[in-house]
Automatic annotation (TrEMBL):
InterPro entries: 6-hairpin_glycosidase_sf, 6hp_glycosidase-like_sf, GH125
SUPFAM superfamilies given in the database record: Six-hairpin glycosidases
Name the record gives this protein: Glycosyl hydrolase family 63 C-terminal domain-containing protein
Record field: transmembrane: 20-39
Keywords assigned: Membrane, Transmembrane, Transmembrane helix
C-alpha cells in the first residue's frame, strides 16, 4: 500500500510538474510576443526609445576614457594593450633605414599635398587618390594620423597647427552634410553628375552621390574621427554643431532600421529629408540576390546589416562581423560625447540599446567552431547560423580587431589569426620574389575584377595592419622594411600586388594605406614626424582666411 501510494504521489507530482511547465511556457511565449510587439512599435516611433532592451540590458559605463581599450568588459580585468603599441622608446634609430623614415614623411603628408581641397565654406573635400571622389571611410582614415595623440612635443598634429585643425574640422562638417544628403551613400563627388536611368533607378545615385553602396563602416569612420578629434583637440565647438549631432543621429537611426533590413525597415523622421530616404533601399539586382535585397537575414539577431564590404564588394551574408564590432566601439565613443556635449537622452538610449543588441549578436552568431583552429570569429553571418570564414585586407577586417579597439576574446582572436594566416582563408597568399624574399599577406576579392587581375594578390594594407596589431617591435621593423621593398621602387603603398612580382600592382596613388604606413612608422620612431625632415603644403586652399601654420607648414 505504502509503496503504491508513494508511486502515485510520484506520478501525480510529475503530472502536476508537466502542467506547470506547460503553463510557464505559454506565459513565456506570451511575454515574448508582447515584447516583440512593443519593440516593433518602438522602432516605428523614433521619439520613444524606452528602457526596454530586448536582448541584453547591460549599461555602458559613461566614465570609461576611451583612448584606452574597453577590453576589460569582455575578459575580466586583464586589459588588452592599445594598438599600435608605442615602441618609440625601445627602438633605436639605427634599426630603421633612412628610407623608411623619409617614406614616413612623404606618406604622412601625401593626403594633404595631393588630395585635399580646403573649400571657401568652412568645409574640406578629400579624394582617395587616383579615384577622384571622396569616400567617407577613406577620407577619415587618410587624416587619422593628424588626430593621433602625443606624436610631436606630446601633442597631436591638429593641436600644433591651426591649418591642420582647419582641414579636419572642415572634413567633419563636409561629412556631416553628405550624410544628411544621403546616409546610404559611401562615396561622393564634388560636383553633381549626369546619370543614366539605370544609375538613378537601380543604383540610387543622385545629387553628389558617386556610389550608393551602403557600407556600415562609412559611418563608423566618421564617428571615430569625431571621437579622436574630441580627445585630441580641446575646443569642441565643431562637435557641438547641430549638423554634426544630427549626422550622428541619422546614422544611428539608419543602423537601427538596418537591423530589420529583412522587414524592409527604413528610418523616418524630419532628419530623413533626402531623395530616396523614405523607402527601404534595394541594390543592384545584378550584384545582389532577391532583386537587390541581398540574402535573407534574421531581423532579431541584434546585428545591423551592410550591403557592401569595406572593399566595396557586395556582402554574401548581410551581417559583416568586423563592421559590427567597429559599430559597437564607435557607439561607445558617441555615448561619451553625447553625455558630455550633446546631452541628448533619446539618442543615448537608442545608442545604448543598439550597442547592446549588436554585442549580443556578435557573441551569439559571430563565433564559429572550426575543427582545426577552435572557436574563431566569422567574417559574415546571417543570424540563422550560416556564415563565411575568411578575411579581407580592407579595414575593418578580422585581423584589425585590436586596432579597432573592440573588446575581443583573446583566445578567439588568436585562433582567428591562425586561421587568417593559413590556406583555409581564401584571401591568404604567400610567395617569393627577389625584392622581398618570402612574403605573405591578405588580399581581397576586389582585386579580381576583370580590368585589373592581380594573381595571388596581397594588399600592403594587410601587411601594415599586421604591424599595427603586433606587440613585437622587431616584427614591426621587419614589416616596414618589407613594405618598402614590395613597393616596386615607388615607396608608395599600392592597393594590391602579386606576391611573386610586386611590380604587378594596382592603384599607384591610394592615400589610405599611405596614412596607415605613416601611423605604423610613427609608433616606432620620433624621427617621423619631424619638421626639419618633412613639411607639407595643402593641395588647394580656397578659404579666404589663410591661417598661420606651424613648423610643419611649408610656406612658399
Ligand atoms: C573566450 O573564448 C573561449 C573559447 O571559446 C572561451 O572558452 C572563454 O570562456 C571565452 N572567454 C570569455 C571571457 O568569454
Ligand atoms: C576586477 O577589478 C575590480 C575592481 O578593481 C575588482 O573588484 C575585481 O575583483 C577584479 N576582478 C578580477 C577577476 O580580478
Ligand atoms: C548633363 O547633360 C546635359 C544634357 O545632355 C548637358 O547639357 C550638360 O552639360 C550635362 N552636364 C554635365 C555636368 O555633364
Ligand atoms: C533569430 O535570432 C533570434 C535571437 O537570437 C533567435 O532566437 C532565433 O532563433 C533566430 N531565428 C532563427 C530562425 O534562427
Ligand atoms: C618578434 O619578431 C621577430 C621578427 O619577426 C621574431 O624573430 C621573434 O621570434 C619575435 N618574437 C616573439 C616573442 O614572438
Ligand atoms: C600581371 O599579372 C597578370 C596575370 O598573370 C598578367 O596578365 C599581367 O600581364 C601582369 N602584369 C604585369 C605588369 O606584369
Amino acid at each position: 500500500m505504502r509503496k503504491r501510494n508513494q508511486k502515485d504521489a510520484v506520478c501525480c507530482s510529475r503530472r502536476r510538474g508537466i502542467v506547470l511547465v506547460a503553463i510557464l511556457m505559454a506565459l513565456w511565449l506570451l511575454i515574448i510576443a508582447f515584447s516583440v510587439t512593443i519593440i516593433d512599435n518602438q522602432l516605428n516611433d523614433a521619439s520613444n526609445y524606452g528602457g526596454l532592451a530586448f536582448l541584453t540590458a547591460q549599461n555602458v559605463d559613461a566614465s570609461t576614457p576611451l583612448i584606452q581599450n574597453t577590453a576589460h568588459d569582455a575578459i575580466g580585468n586583464s586589459t588588452l594593450p592599445n594598438y599600435p603599441i608605442d615602441h618609440r622608446n625601445i627602438v633605436s634609430s639605427n634599426q630603421l633605414s633612412p628610407e623608411v623614415v623619409s617614406q614616413c614623411h612623404r606618406a604622412l603628408w601625401h593626403t594633404l599635398e595631393t588630395t585635399t581641397t580646403v573649400l571657401q565654406n568652412q568645409e574640406t573635400f578629400i579624394i582617395t587618390g587616383d579615384i577622384k571622389d571622396m569616400w567617407l571611410r577613406d577620407s577619415a582614415a587618410q587624416i587619422h594620423p593628424l588626430l593621433l595623440p602625443n606624436v610631436y612635443e606630446e601633442k597631436s598634429l591638429v593641436q600644433l597647427d591651426p591649418r591642420l585643425e582647419r582641414v579636419v574640422s572642415g572634413l567633419i562638417l563636409k561629412t556631416a552634410k553628405l550624410i544628411r544628403h544621403d546616409p546610404y551613400a559611401n562615396a561622393f563627388s564634388s560636383v553633381i553628375k549626369n546619370r543614366t536611368k539605370f544609375e538613378k533607378i537601380a543604383l540610387g545615385r543622385h545629387g553628389y552621390v558617386a556610389t550608393r553602396n551602403y557600407e556600415l563602416d562609412s559611418g563608423c569612420y566618421f564617428m571615430r574621427m569625431l571621437y579622436y578629434f574630441y580627445q585630441s583637440f580641446p575646443d569642441h565647438t565643431i562637435l557641438k554643431k547641430k549638423e554634426v549631432k544630427e549626422a550622428v543621429h541619422i546614422m544611428v537611426d539608419l543602423w537601427i532600421a538596418e537591423q530589420r533590413h529583412e522587414l524592409d525597415a527604413f528610418p523616418s523622421g524630419e532628419l530623413f529629408d533626402c531623395f530616396e530616404c523614405r523607402r527601404s533601399y534595394w541594390y543592384n539586382p545584378n550584384q545582389m540576390p532577391r532583386d537587390g535585397k541581398g540574402t535573407k537575414t534574421n531581423h532579431t539577431a541584434g546585428l545591423t546589416w551592410s550591403g557592401f564590404r569595406p572593399s566595396d564588394e557586395t556582402c554574401v551574408y548581410g551581417y559583416l562581423i568586423p563592421a559590427n564590432m567597429f559599430t559597437v566601439v564607435v557607439l561607445d565613443y558617441m555615448l561619451q560625447i553625447s553625455r558630455n556635449l550633446w546631452k541628448n537622452s533619446i539618442l543615448n538610449r537608442k545608442m545604448t540599446k543598439l550597442r547592446n543588441e549588436i554585442q549580443y549578436g556578435i557573441d551569439r552568431y559571430g563565433i564559429i567552431h572550426h575543427d582545426r583552429y577552435g572557436d574563431i570569429y566569422a567574417y559574415e553571418v546571417d543570424g540563422f547560423g550560416n556564415y563565411i570564414l575568411m578575411d579581407d585586407a580592407n579595414v575593418p577586417s578580422l585581423l584589425s580587431i585590436p586596432y579597432l579597439r573592440y573588446s575581443y576574446n583573446k583566445t578567439v582572436y588568436d585562433n582567428t589569426v591562425q586561421f587568417i594566416y593559413s590556406t583555409d582563408n581564401p584571401s591568404y597568399h604567400k610567395g617569393w620574389n627577389e625584392w622581398t624574399g618570402e612574403i605573405e599577406g591578405i588580399g581581397s576579392s576586389h582585386a579580381h575584377k576583370k580590368w585589373e587581375v592581380i594573381p595571388s594578390d596581397v594588399w600592403p594594407m594587410s601587411i601594415i595592419m599586421k604591424g599595427l596589431v603586433s606587440d613585437n617591435a622587431t616584427e614591426k621593423i621587419r614589416l616596414v622594411h618589407q613594405l618598402l621593398q614590395a613597393s616596386a621602387s615607388t615607396g608608395w603603398m599600392h592597393e594590391s600586388f602579386d606576391v611573386n612580382n610586386p611590380f604587378n600592382f594596382s592603384r599607384p596613388w591610394f592615400c589610405w594605406p599611405d596614412s596607415l604606413f605613416a601611423e605604423l612608422v610613427m609608433s616606432l620612431t620620433r624621427e617621423c614626424p619631424q619638421p626639419s625632415e618633412g613639411q607639407y603644403t595643402i593641395m588647394e586652399w580656397l578659404d579666404s582666411e589663410l591661417l598661420p601654420g606651424s613648423v610643419f607648414a611649408r610656406d612658399e
